[in-house]
Amino acid sequence: MSAVLELLRNREVVGKEFRSPFDSAPGGTRKHTLHDHIDQAAVDALQGKTEECLNHLAEIAAADVALARAVLDEVQAIEVPVPDDISVTWGGLREAAALLAETLGSVADIRQDTEMISHHCAQLQDSVKDLESEGGVLSLDDYKVLLRDTDEIPLIIAELQDALVGIRRRADETNVRSLQCAAFFADYVEQSQAIGGISQAIGGFLSRSESSQGEFQRLLTEVEVFQDEMWNLITWYRNFHGAYDALVGEVHRRRQAQAQQHAVVEDVRARLDVMHLEEVDRRSEFVDKFGPFLPSDLCPFIQDPPPRFIVDEIGDVERLASVQSYDTQ
């Protein structure tokens, strides 16, 4: 807009007959330009409205940016724990399951060893009963059986002790795995709560900025309307500048056409004057020669002078003549 207005300010109007808003101003020294014929106040008002809307848009954008930064600081202040890799936890669970399976196997072995001890104890009781019934005298075979059972019992007890130690070890390992899983799930819950806090902060930001977005969109629409009006004015002013060039050329063309018509009129006037004088002479000659012999009531108009024809302009022809030529700008 500034460029096209400057273009109009620098385009001086030629010819005194082009009307200027400053013709009646005292002094009359101000240069007459195309800018004198536009409504600068309307242009200033349109630019002022556009700038006002743009300032409001900038204020809304700045407020949203400040709000976004505050929410970002709030989000960054939230500590989000990072649990161990889930594969590690699932691996621990699988190992715990394997330990449980081994423990169940050990329990089966203990049950079997217990049954063996019970069996040996039953055999010992039977041997003692037989010994009592026979008067306390053991046969060689009974002695061997009793000795064998007595030797196997410590071995079975040792196996039971080993199995219990294994069960205790696996129980400790299972407890460690369970603690790891519990820690993972505790971290996961804490992480979920932290993420929930972040989501709440972002949701609050979106909710608070939603109202400003409506006003922002309304102002943006107004700016687009003002810009369309501005471009329409710019287009009109450019066409005005071009139309003025065409106007000066048209005035020059009309002046030439009028000059040609005026020349024709002057020629016709001169020829009519000559013809009129010739007619006057011929009528005078006729009247002088034959008039005395003609009664006055026979042809009264024979004494009349010839009519005079006048060719004249209709309209103000002097205005075009005073306008400067397009070629002399």
UniProtKB/TrEMBL annotation:
GO biological process: autophagosome assembly; autophagy of mitochondrion; piecemeal microautophagy of the nucleus
UniProt keyword annotation of Cytoplasm present: yes
Stretches assigned to the Autophagy protein ATG17-like domain: 21-294
Entry GO MF terms: molecular adaptor activity; protein kinase activator activity
Record keywords, A-Z: Autophagy, Cytoplasm, Membrane
Annotated Gene Ontology cellular component terms: Atg1/ULK1 kinase complex; phagophore assembly site membrane
Bilayer disposition of the protein: Peripheral membrane protein
Keyword Cytoplasm annotated: yes
Pfam families named among the record's database cross-references: ATG17_like
Subcellular localization: Cytoplasm; Preautophagosomal structure membrane
General function of this protein: Autophagy-specific protein that functions in response to autophagy-inducing signals as a scaffold to recruit other ATG proteins to organize preautophagosomal structure (PAS) formation. Modulates the timing and magnitude of the autophagy response, such as the size of the sequestering vesicles. Plays particularly a role in pexophagy and nucleophagy.
Recorded family membership: Belongs to the ATG17 family.
Classification via PANTHER family: AUTOPHAGY-RELATED PROTEIN 17
Protein name as annotated: Autophagy-related protein 17
Organism encoding this protein: Linderina pennispora
